[in-house]
Specification:
Elements (H helix, E strand, L loop, with lengths): L1 E5 L2 E4 L4 E8 L7 E7 L6 E7 L4 E3 L7 E6 L4 E6 L8 E8 L6 E2 L3 E6 L1
């Protein structure tokens, strides 16, 4: 089973990007999927998570600007990022949790926001 993330890139401040992350190689069900990010010289931090039933959780720094969603049938999670700021620059990692297994992590996708 692996997670494949895509959608990162370079954008100007105030712009938008949409990240996608798809799980492949298994029919495993994930009770929580989410996004984390790691900026240079900083620890990895939670950005947003979404449970299989749709309950969401966001870091305070992205509330009102980012929206997480998922397609359970496709085992895919999305992150719509609007009003991007330079401080959002980081490598974004998707994460998936399923009962009885270790967490899955994607390979990371770089988001760069220029001022």
């Amino acid at each position: 089973v692996q997670l494949q993330a895509s959608g990162g890139g370079l954008v100007q401040a105030g712009g938008s990007l949409r990240l996608s992350c798809a799980a492949s190689g298994s029919s495993r069900r994930f009770y929580v999927m989410g996004w984390y990010r790691q900026a240079p010289g900083k620890q990895r931090e939670l950005v947003a998570t979404i449970a299989s039933g749709g309950l969401t959780n966001y870091a305070d720094s992205v509330k009102g600007r980012f929206a997480i969603s998922r397609d359970n049938g496709k085992n895919t999670v999305y992150l719509q990022m609007n009003s991007l700021k330079p401080e959002d620059t980081a490598v974004y990692y998707c994460n998936a949790k399923s009962f009885g297994y270790n967490d899955l992590w994607g390979q990371g996708t770089l988001v760069t926001v220029s001022s």
